[in-house]
């Protein structure tokens, strides 16, 4: 986790939630949401070439919330349930599921809020 994110010497951006993760094979993509008062122009320029800033357009998401640790096996079970429920309801899924976490890693396990989420048509 990176906190705080600094825009200038005089302003700090507080840590935001959720932190969204998408794993495809050996590739791991982590997304941080920025407060809505910022734009791509006003956000600080990343000093690491692996970090990029993108505006994500509004979209409809289906979400299944769960608590405790978001281990790979646990997320896989929740994701499977979410996708199965969507299929039963006749909803069209677009793309791969995401894992979203809302708490710092040092939070007590039963207080962790996590979500499996996927874009739907």
Task: Explain the overall architecture.
- By secondary structure, the protein is mainly beta.
- It has one domain: Regulatory factor, effector binding domain (Multidrug-efflux Transporter 1 Regulator Bmrr, Chain A), CATH 3.20.80.
- It is 14% helix and 36% strand.
- The chain has a 5-stranded antiparallel sheet with strand order 4-3-6-7-5, covered by helices on one side.
- The chain starts with a strand and ends with a strand.
Q: Report the mean per-residue pLDDT as an integer.
A: 80
H/E element order:
EEEEEHEE
Class of secondary structure makeup? mainly beta
What strand line-up does the widest sheet have? 4-3-6-7-5
If helices are DSSP runs of H or I spanning 4 or more residues, what is the number of helices? 1
Q: How widely separated are the two ends?
A: 32 Å
Silhouette: globular
Secondary-structure blueprint:
Elements: E1 5-8, E2 11-13, E3 19-24, E4 27-32, E5 61-67, H1 72-88, E6 93-101, E7 113-120
Antiparallel strand pairs: 1-2, 3-4, 3-6, 5-7, 6-7
Can you describe this structure in just a few lines?
By secondary structure, the chain is mainly beta.
Question: What would the keywords be for this entry?
Answer:
121 residues; mainly beta; Multidrug-efflux Transporter 1 Regulator Bmrr, Chain A; five-stranded antiparallel sheet; two-stranded antiparallel sheet; 7 strands
């Amino acid at each position: 986790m990176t906190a705080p994110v600094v825009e200038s010497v005089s302003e700090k951006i507080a840590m935001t939630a959720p932190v969204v993760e998408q794993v495809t094979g050996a590739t791991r993509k982590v997304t941080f949401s920025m407060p809505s008062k910022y734009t791509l122009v006003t956000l600080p320029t990343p000093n690491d070439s692996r970090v990029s800033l993108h505006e994500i357009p509004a979209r409809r998401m289906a979400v299944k919330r769960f608590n405790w640790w978001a281990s790979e096996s646990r997320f896989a079970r929740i994701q499977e349930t979410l996708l199965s429920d969507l299929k039963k309801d006749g909803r069209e899924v677009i793309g791969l599921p995401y894992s979203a976490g809302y708490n710092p890693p040092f939070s007590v396990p039963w207080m962790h809020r996590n979500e499996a989420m996927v874009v739907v048509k």
